[in-house]
Each structure stands twice: as structure tokens, then as C-alpha cells.
Design a protein that fits this description.
globular; alpha/beta; 6-stranded mixed beta sheet; Alkaline Phosphatase, subunit A; about 20% strand
């Protein structure tokens, strides 16, 4: 008598691993009959991951970057006054930033992934975290349903292992759960690859070793699941590719202009590959645009560009002037660090060698071409 369970779908998300990096690991390719390059969205991880979970584009689900410009600041006004009064030699210290980050987390206990990195504390007076909830929890991208919400509403037995748990433990816990728990759906986040890509580069020895470790976990997982289930579908995918960094674009002079001459006319946020401006004085908008247009190795995105990328937000909450770097270039300094990384993302989704990937342990007749098309397969 066959006592095997019916079906299980295992969804493995590898943060920051591009198609070309996956191709450099033949053993992993051998266990994925379906392995294709797919296009990502403009923006950063928060935008791409929300698209995978909902099947919607950034202008629909509202995620684009870690922070947006907001009249409701990240910190209470009294806290901002205290911080503003502190000397720079205190606010620049790592210990101070760690304590401030803990305080921020207490103020946003249900928040998703965000950190302070190198954001000057005074800028916290006009930005707010985009992820109000952990997007991998139920109602994580409310009011839009995610695949997690779909599983919950359809009474499926599922487990989600988020970025809050080291992936080694997630795989171990899952392998321990499977024999005694009739799971039907699993979502497992693996985020270490993104860190390794930034630090060592997308084609580094460290990234290749990481992909090999993931392959070993997958083979063990498939071995266990094939003994327990009649039908095992394993989907593995990423949110974006990673491009080798060529050079830094030094923007110290630009920052000086924006924070001195125009400090009352605009708000700024500097992502690694984008400089975003929220204009306060409409009369100065063209002058601000001219400053951005003087920055080399990039372009100021028009509304038509943003509409094409489906990242045109009517509220302009992520900025009404956005400078985007050319692939391989990084703005320095920026609010995430002043050291040049080996790998970076957040570029034009159509950039050469920037494709992310989708793989499956079965040969699929219809394959996704874009990360938004992954969602129906995971249900």
C-alpha cells in the first residue's frame, strides 16, 4: 500500500544570485531541467521581492526602495531634536548607530527588513521605512495578497522560513519537520548570496562555494521529499542579478550643493545606484535637475522611463527627480556605505548580464520571462 502524501511545492528564494552566476555551477544546473534567465524590476530588493510574492509591479504594490519621503518621520520629533543636538563625533560611532537601530526597531515592531546603515540621523526627519510589515508574513504587502496569503486563505499546510533565520538552520529545521508534518507548501529565504555578491563579486570563489552549498541542501531535500510525496515540485529563483562594479562616481560636490545651497528646497536620499530628490520648492526643480544631469555615467529618469518600468508613483513618494547609474557604477558616498562594493544591483532591468533566474526540478512547457510571472507557479 502506498502511504505517500500527495503533493508538495518547495519555493527557494536566493537573494542576489543572477543567471550567469547560476550557470557557473554545472552541478546545480544538472538537477534543474528548467533553468531560464528572467527579467527583474527597477528598484531594489524590496521592490523585486514584493513583485515575486504578489505578481504585481512596484507602482501597484508600492515597494521600490527601503525608505520613502514621508511627512511622518521614522522617529518621533522629540527624539529627532535630541539627536540633532548631539555632536557628529557621537552620531558617527557604530555603537550609537546600533542603539539607534534597536530603538527604531522598537518603534516599528511589525516592520519588515530595514536598517540605518550610513543614513545621517538628521535625514530620519523626513523618511519612513517602506516595509511596514514583514512581507513574508500574512498580510505582509497589504492590501495586496501574496502567495503566503493565498496559502493561508486556502487552508494549505505551509511553513515560511524568512530572512530572520540563518538559512543553514532553515534547511535543517525543514528536514526535521518533513517526516512528521504533512506540509503542502514551503517558502525558504536564502539571503547570504546577496551579501557575498556585494563583498566579493558575483563570480567570486565565495559565491560559487555558496551556490554549491545550496545545491547540496537541495539534493538532500529532494531525496527526503521523494520518499514522502508522490509529486514534488521544487522552484528556485532570485529577485535580481548582480553586476561587477567598475568604478565609483564621486558625488561629494553634488551633495554639498544639495545640502547647502538648496537645503530648504529639497530632500535627498542616496541609494547606491540612485540619487533621489523630493522637491519642496517647485521653482528650483529645473535647477536641481541640472545638477543631477551633470553627474556622469547615468541619467535622470523621465516620467516616461518610470512608466515603462511600471515604477511611476503618482505621490512621488520615492522622489520626483531620480538619477540612475549606468550598470557597473556606484555613487559614493551613499547612505549605505562609503566603500566600493565588488558587486551591485539596482540598475536598469534590461542591462546586459543583469538577468536573474528561475529554475524547477521539472521540465515546464510554459516558462516565466519576468519575476512577476513566477507567482502563479508557486500557488
Amino acid at each position: 500500500m502506498d502511504n505517500k502524501r500527495d503533493i508538495i511545492k518547495i519555493c527557494i528564494f536566493l537573494d542576489g544570485i543572477g543567471y550567469d552566476s547560476i550557470l557557473s555551477s554545472p552541478p546545480l544546473k544538472n538537477i534543474l531541467p528548467t533553468l531560464v534567465p528572467i527579467e527583474t524590476v527597477l528598484g531594489f530588493s524590496s521592490a523585486a521581492q514584493a513583485t515575486i510574492l504578489t505578481g504585481k509591479y512596484p507602482q501597484e504594490h508600492g515597494q521600490f526602495s527601503m525608505y520613502y519621503f514621508s511627512p511622518n518621520p521614522t522617529l518621533p520629533k522629540f527624539s529627532l531634536k535630541v539627536i540633532s543636538a548631539l555632536p557628529y563625533f557621537i552620531t558617527r560611532r557604530k555603537k550609537f548607530k546600533t542603539l539607534l537601530a534597536l530603538y527604531l526597531r522598537l518603534l516599528h515592531p511589525k516592520g519588515g527588513y530595514f536598517g540605518l546603515f550610513e543614513i545621517p540621523p538628521r535625514h530620519l526627519s523626513y523618511i519612513s521605512p517602506t516595509e511596514k510589515r514583514n512581507i513574508y508574513k500574512i498580510r505582509g504587502v497589504h492590501p495586496h495578497d501574496t502567495i503566503i496569503d493565498y496559502w493561508y486563505k486556502n487552508h494549505l499546510n505551509f511553513r515560511v522560513f524568512t530572512w530572520e533565520i540563518p538559512e543553514e538552520y532553515s534547511f535543517q529545521q525543514l528536514l526535521q519537520l518533513l517526516p512528521n508534518t504533512p506540509l503542502e507548501r514551503v517558502f525558504l529565504c536564502c539571503t547570504k548570496g546577496d551579501h557575498l555578491g556585494h563583498k566579493f563579486g558575483p563570480f567570486s570563489k565565495e559565491v560559487k562555494e555558496y551556490i554549491e552549498k545550496i545545491r547540496q541542501y537541495i539534493e538532500k531535500l529532494l531525496e527526503v521529499c521523494n520518499k514522502l510525496y508522490k509529486n514534488v515540485s521544487l522552484y528556485i529563483f532570485s529577485d535580481h542579478g548582480m553586476i561587477e562594479v567598475k568604478e565609483a562616481i564621486k558625488i561629494n560636490v553634488v551633495i554639498e550643493q544639495l545640502t547647502s545651497k538648496y537645503r530648504n528646497d529639497c530632500l535627498i536620499f542616496i541609494d547606491a545606484t540612485m540619487l533621489r530628490i523630493f522637491t519642496l520648492n517647485p521653482k528650483k526643480r529645473e535647477a536641481l535637475r541640472c545638477i543631477l544631469e551633470e553627474i556622469p555615467h547615468g541619467k535622470v529618469l523621465s516620467d516616461e522611463d518610470l512608466k515603462t518600468f511600471k515604477c511611476l508613483f503618482p505621490s512621488k513618494k520615492f522622489g520626483d527627480l531620480i538619477f540612475l547609474c549606468d550598470p557597473g557604477y556606484v555613487l559614493l558616498p551613499n547612505f549605505f556605505g562609503d566603500l566600493l562594493p565588488r558587486g551591485m544591483h539596482g540598475y536598469d532591468p534590461n542591462a546586459k548580464d543583469y538577468a536573474t533566474f528561475f529554475g524547477c526540478n521539472k521540465k515546464l512547457s510554459s516558462q516565466p520571462l519576468h519575476i512577476s510571472q513566477i507567482t502563479p507557479l508557486l500557488k
